[in-house]
Amino acid sequence: MRTKAEILQLLKLEIASETGVPISEIGDSASFFELGLNSISAVFILDVLEKKLKVEMNPLFFWDYPTLELLAEYITMQLKK
Predict the structure, then answer these.
(1) Which alpha helices (DSSP H) does the chain contain, by range?
(2) Can you give the pTM of this predicted structure?
(3) Torsion of Cα atoms, 17 then 23 then 35 then 42, to 10°
């Protein structure tokens, strides 16, 4: 099982890879769109997360959980089920 901190780190790694923003500049409360993600890159990242975490990811999650922290909390709860 992964912790919220591990999921946050994974989110940051994937966002940094996709956007070129250094991980050190990606805050937990940053919104995905402040970080330069668009709908195409968001779907790509969700696909990667879905494969790595073995949890179903919906593209609407970036709107339902608009910050890294909120999405990490949601994913953590899903992994506990």
Answers:
(1) 4-19, 39-53, 61-64, 68-80
(2) 0.89
(3) 40
For residue 22, the number of C-alpha atoms closer than 13 Å in the C-beta half-sphere is 2
CA distance linking residue 49 with residue 64, whole number of Å = 16
**pLDDT of 47-67, one tens digit each?**
999 999 999 988 888 889 999
For residue 56, give both structure tokens. 């179903």
Question: Domains of the chain, with CATH numbers?
Answer: 4-80 (1.10.1200.10)
Is residue 3 a contact partner of residue 76, using CB atoms and an 8 Å limit? yes
Contacting residues for 71 by C-beta, under 8 A, at least 6 apart:
11, 61, 62, 65
Confidence tier at 1 by pLDDT (50, 70, 90): low
